Amino acid sequence: MPELPEVETVRRGLQPVMEGARIVRVEARRPDLRFPLPENFAARLAGRKILSLGRRAKYLTMHLEGGPALICHLGMSGSFRIETANASETPGDFHHQRTAAGAHDHVVFELEPAAGPAARIVFNDPRRFGFMLFAECAPDEHPMLASLGIEPTGNALDGPLLAGLLEGRKAPLKAALLDQTLIAGLGNIYVSEALWRAGLSPLRRAGTIAGPTKRARAHAEGLAGAIRAVIADAIAAGGSSLRDYRQADGSLGYFQHSFAVYDREGEPCPRPGCGGAIKRIVQSGRSTFYCPTCQY
């Protein structure tokens, strides 16, 4: 599933075309994705101006003039494609072929941008695990978003805050970091990478980095910094290209070439002087990659 950096990359790719544009027409080619599309979905969007395109955790939020916000989730394989009359897609060096004949193009937004040629934004989702819902309230108050925790993209996530979130928790550290009510948007890939950067085992009890000792405070500060850094690095690289994920222009992210542990089972640990090898284990049904020599 696309994680926070991938969704932020998609938002940045869509933003120049969508913000300030007026939705001329929406074509819903099927009545549902993961959930049924909202009642009168196309009619409620037609004619409205897109004020801004936001992101909360792994959700995209489309703020509309005089109407409800639209909350979008990419699911496992969803992607947006930008089409204009004067330009074709500009894929990156690494490119997967899209599905043929638009068979999985489920929702099409026809836009009249504030500047530039008319555009179409196409939502393609072969597995149909994505969804689009209206938020009649402020998006952050919608049930899908209301319980989400702090974003890992700013300096607010520091050592003391992280320690407070994990205090008393007996769950493994990796499992606690995947709890979206604590930190929003972290997923399997970037938690594994952040734990490696911080030198902490995914198996250690989460509450052990929340104690009053100098060592515990150092662990919390180091992990908070590692989380912020790995997310920032991944966004700067355009996310990671795993299976179905791609950016809005069809190109793939490059952060997968910087993975230290994820999907590198049996390879030497890249930490200088470590000498260990990357190990794969399964936690809560998900693969965890780490170095048992330098992560403890």
Structure, explained:
By secondary structure, this protein is an alpha+beta fold. It has 2 domains: 4-141, Alpha-Beta Barrel (N-terminal domain of MutM-like DNA repair proteins), CATH 3.20.190.10; 159-290, Helicase, Ruva Protein, domain 3. The chain has 6 helices and 10 strands; from the N terminus they run αβαβββββββααααββ. It has helices at 4-18, 41-45, 159-166, 173-177, 188-198, 214-236; strands at residues 22-28, 50-56, 59-64, 69-73, 79-84, 105-112, 119-124, 131-135, 279-283, 286-290. It has a 4-stranded antiparallel sheet. The protein has a 4-stranded antiparallel sheet with strand order 2-3-4-8. It has a two-stranded antiparallel ribbon with strand order 9-10. Helix 1 (4-18) packs across helix 6 and helix 3 packs across helix 6.
Tags for this entry?
single chain; 23% helix; 296 residues; four-stranded antiparallel β-sheet; 10 strands; 2 domains; Helicase, Ruva Protein, domain 3
